[in-house]
Amino acid sequence: MSELSVPHLLGIKYINEADIQLIFETADHFKEIINRPIKKVPSLRDITIANLFFENSTRTRLSFELAEKRLSADVVNFSAAQSSVKKGETLIDTVNNILSMKVDMVVMRHPNPGAGVFLSKNVKASIVNAGDGAHEHPTQALLDSYSIRERLGDVAGKNVVIVGDILHSRVALSNIFALKLQGANVKVCGPKTLIPKYITSLGVEVETNLQKAIEWCDVANMLRIQNERLDISYFPSTREYVQQYGLTKPMLDRLDKEIVIMHPGPINRGVEITSDVADSEQAIILDQVENGVAVRMAVIYLLASKIK
Known about the structure:
Layout: H1 17-34, E1 48-53, H2 59-70, E2 74-79, H3 88-99, E3 105-110, H4 115-122, E4 126-132, H5 138-152, E5 159-163, H6 170-181, E6 185-189, E7 205-207, H7 210-216, E8 219-222, H8 238-245, H9 249-253, E9 260-262, H10 275-278, H11 285-307
Parallel strand pairs: 1-2, 1-3, 3-4, 5-6, 5-8, 6-7, 8-9
Helix pairs in contact: 1-11, 2-11, 5-6, 5-11
Pathway: Pyrimidine metabolism; UMP biosynthesis via de novo pathway; (S)-dihydroorotate from bicarbonate: step 2/3
Family: Belongs to the aspartate/ornithine carbamoyltransferase superfamily. ATCase family.
Function: Catalyzes the condensation of carbamoyl phosphate and aspartate to form carbamoyl aspartate and inorganic phosphate, the committed step in the de novo pyrimidine nucleotide biosynthesis pathway.
């Protein structure tokens, strides 16, 4: 298979395992390119991409922008986080205004779940979902799986635990879909109040004890506590959360094996993980950042090849 089965990347649940492998093989090629002295390729010289961020984002936006520029695409940035673009029609109007500038692809982050799907049905452009509410964040899940594959050789058969606020996390949901597609075993770990009721229907087990979870896993993906999404108190205090679900060096030292530590960032140091864990050899957090550019280059390149 040399092309994706879909014209957009709206979520992991819309793609298949062959798509994931194609993205990874393409990312391998781009990763080699971005480590050369000249990091640019002319692949998308005639493609224009608009980055629409209706929610604040630094790392994802920069990663996409860098990926687009490495491919020599023309890039238009639109930050609507401060503007009043919140309603459905206004979303289409905004995008249509941008598309009238002859844009081929839209990378969008939006606070409403399903915004990307809605857009894909209403505008003529290839859509990449850069995060829609607490729903999906497909490129993050792809770069996470790609980073596991790079460190451990394969994702199939690996035990992966996702720790933290599963309820509000689009990273968790996309990761669960991606890991299950590739044949990994997945558990989630966190306070009961932050684990959605439907989670077991996705073929995922729940573990409430962090020490037991890390004894079981090959990889621990530590999610950020999203204070901005916690409209009510889901746990008594940050201090209590840290005592039960914060990963520390002594906990890792008690294991009879080395596990891989991941974090989608930005890290609240001393909350999800301590600094000595974040900066340890077991952590692949900076690899995830580097791989994010290669994986996003692959996604954009493969979708663009369907436009022409």
